[in-house]
């Protein structure tokens, strides 16, 4: 346990009697009041998440000249200033080294937001693909990140942090001042609800946490509810649904890959597109309240056709839901499957994403 | 009659010819939000400490073991739609099933409430 890193909010989580557990090398809050209560709060009000563990890199330089343009599966210079884009860092086999969001801060300035567990490797891979690696800096330690997510998040943000936040559209952000410090407020998230990701100096994270939590519309939520919220939307979790052996095409995330431009891994993807994917991602719904779980087997007509990569009981749908990878013949919508582990067995059906369509995401 | 507990955190309470079975408040708290209870078939016969039923929470899936040998006489079908009852009242309304045809002598292999409280302290 002593090797685990802690966010600036650790003492706050302990005061709130959060259940803490390791996640991606960090000691993080899993739940406060309870996973389902926090999930419901986020779907109905505004939930506050400590996301300080995630990584941020700052690139300053000529995007094309320095080679950043060819690092990811999407064009960086094609992102207008003030917007962000989701996509991938791939290895030369087309496998996902990380899924990430790039924020175009200025003509020659971008922020790259990456998963916590992959920070060191991402940093060395991206650096190695640049002409002058010094143009990229890891600013994770000095950067705090809080997410406020839920249908009431806009009114809370506007009242407590400023009217300029109100009009920010989905996948756009503003640079502003919060508590006397430079901050970025982005209309993005991982819950399927209207919400914001706030980046600010890490020494201001506690003050912002306290300010937001004083509002009765806001309650803290841990990584347990965050996992349920993202799964109800069908969002991938790196390490479960994506890893270095999985390509974005087999993950059904081809829309975040621009095959018209150059990037590491492109040749492998072109080949895969030509030959067809060996395994493809599916979403499935269980016919009962039983929850599928990571590594459960997926069977079709008695034969093993794949593996579950994420699964849970969905409070919004009142049934089990999951993501997994199967052979292409088992991937068609409506395919009847059996999910199995030891004596646990459940019937399931391939469905479309998102599982939950009632969110306030684009509201 | 008083409740007796297993090391796997089931409880049993004998009332006449029936023994009511559930999971302890400690177990329910540890599991977190309970989302599914796999009730046993009425008529199913089990030996003491065999798998009797299953329970799932937002965190994990677990087996429930029979605290006594016997036959399942009734199940708490309320739990099919309201498994959270186990969180609210694990040792009351959230009972799992009632068994018949048991031998009360098997209680000797279980802990009474005081012994179970000691056992939890040692965990």
Question: What is the CATH level 1 assignment of chain B?
Answer: Mainly Beta
Biggest β-sheet of chain A: count, sense, barrel?
Answer: 6 strands, mixed
Order of helices and strands of chain B: EEEHEEEEEHHEEH
The assigned structural class of chain A equals: alpha+beta
Total domain modules of chain B? 1
Compact overview of the structure:
The complex is a heterodimer of chains A (363) and B (123). By secondary structure, chain A is an alpha+beta fold.
Give a structural overview.
The complex is a heterodimer of chains A (363) and B (123). Chain A is of the alpha+beta class and 363 residues long. Chain A folds into three domains: 5-54 and 141-233, Probable tRNA modification gtpase trme, domain 1 (Gyrase A, domain 2); 56-135, Alpha-Beta Plaits (2-Layer Sandwich), CATH 3.30.70.1400; 279-351, Beta Barrel (Elongation Factor Tu (Ef-tu), domain 3), CATH 2.40.30.110. In chain A, 18% of the residues lie in helices and 34% in strands. Chain A is built from seven helices and 20 strands. Chain A has helices spanning 10-15, 35-44, 119-128, 153-161, 205-213, 223-233, 266-275, and strands spanning 5-6, 19-23, 26-31, 46-50, 55-60, 84-90, 96-106, 109-114, 136-138, 143-149, 173-178, 181-186, 195-201, 218-220, 280-286, 297-300, 303-314, 319-326, 336-341, 344-351. In chain A, the strands form four sheets. Chain A has a six-stranded mixed beta sheet. A six-stranded antiparallel β-barrel of chain A has the order 15-18-17-16-19-20. In chain A, a hairpin with a 4-residue loop joins β17 (303-314) and β18 (319-326). In chain A, α2 (35-44) packs across α6. The longest helix of chain A has 11 residues, at 223-233. The radius of gyration of chain A is 20 Å and the shape is globular. Chain A starts with a strand and ends in a 12-residue tail after the last strand. The model of chain A has no long low-confidence stretch (mean pLDDT 96). Chain B is of the alpha+beta class. Chain B has a single domain (3-101), classed as Beta Barrel (OB fold (Dihydrolipoamide Acetyltransferase, E2P)), CATH 2.40.50. In chain B, 20% of the residues lie in helices and 37% in strands. Chain B has four helices and ten strands, in the order βββαβββββααββα. In chain B, the strands form two sheets. In chain B, strands 5-8-9-3-2-1-10 form a seven-stranded antiparallel beta sheet. Chain B has a three-stranded antiparallel beta sheet with strand order 4-6-7. In chain B, β2 and β3 form a beta hairpin. The longest helix of chain B has 9 residues, at 113-121. The N and C termini of chain B lie far apart (27 Å). Classes of the chains: A alpha+beta (363), B alpha+beta (123). Chains A and B meet through α2 of A and β4 and β6 of B.
């Amino acid at each position: 346990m002593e090797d685990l890193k802690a966010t600036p909010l650790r003492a706050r989580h302990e005061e709130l009697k959060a259940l803490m557990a390791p996640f991606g090398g960090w000691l993080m809050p899993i739940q406060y009041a309870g996973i389902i209560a926090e999930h419901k709060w986020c779907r109905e009000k505004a939930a506050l998440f400590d996301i300080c563990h995630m990584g941020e890199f700052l690139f300053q330089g000529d995007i094309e000249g320095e080679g950043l343009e060819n690092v990811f599966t999407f064009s960086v210079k094609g992102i207008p200033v003030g917007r962000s884009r989701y996509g991938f860092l791939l290895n030369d086999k087309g496998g996902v080294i990380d899924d990430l969001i790039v924020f175009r801060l200025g003509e020659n300035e971008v922020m790259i937001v990456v998963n916590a567990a992959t920070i060191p490797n991402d940093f060395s891979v991206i650096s190695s693909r640049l002409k002058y690696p010094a143009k990229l800096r890891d600013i994770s330690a000095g950067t705090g990140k809080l997410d406020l997510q839920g249908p009431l998040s806009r009114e809370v943000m506007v009242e407590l942090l400023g009217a300029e936040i109100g009009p920010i559209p989905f996948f756009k952000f503003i640079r502003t001042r919060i508590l006397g410090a430079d901050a970025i407020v982005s209309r993005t998230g991982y819950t399927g609800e209207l919400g914001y990701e706030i980046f600010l100096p890490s020494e201001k994270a506690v003050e912002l946490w306290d300010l937001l939590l004083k509002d009765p519309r806001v309650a803290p939520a841990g990584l347990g509810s965050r996992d349920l919220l993202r799964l109800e939307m069908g969002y991938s979790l790196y390490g479960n649904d994506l890893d270095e052996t999985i390509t974005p095409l087999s993950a059904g995330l081809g829309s975040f890959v621009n095959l018209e431009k150059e990037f590491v891994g492109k040749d492998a993807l072109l080949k895969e597109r030509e030959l067809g994917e060996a395994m493809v991602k599916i979403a499935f719904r269980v016919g009962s309240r039983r929850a599928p779980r990571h590594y459960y087997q997926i069977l079709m007509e008695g034969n093993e056709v794949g593996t579950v990569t994420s699964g849970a009981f969905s409070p919004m749908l009142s049934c089990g839901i999951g993501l997994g990878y199967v052979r292409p013949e088992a991937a068609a919508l409506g395919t009847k499957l059996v999910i199995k582990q030891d004596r646990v067995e459940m019937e399931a059906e391939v469905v479309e994403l998102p599982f939950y369509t009632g969110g306030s995401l684009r509201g | 009659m008083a409740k007796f507990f297993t090391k796997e955190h089931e409880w049993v309470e004998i009332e006449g010819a029936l023994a009511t079975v559930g999971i302890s408040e400690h177990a329910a708290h540890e599991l977190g939000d309970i989302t599914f209870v796999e009730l046993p078939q009425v008529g199913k016969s089990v030996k003491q400490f065999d798998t009797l039923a299953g329970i799932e929470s937002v965190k994990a899936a677990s087996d429930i073991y029979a605290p006594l040998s016997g036959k399942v006489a009734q199940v708490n079908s309320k739990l099919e739609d309201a498994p959270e009852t186990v969180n609210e009242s694990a040792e009351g309304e959230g009972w799992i099933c009632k068994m018949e045809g048991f031998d009360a002598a098997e209680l000797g292999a279980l802990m009474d409430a005081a012994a179970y409280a000691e056992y939890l302290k040692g965990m």
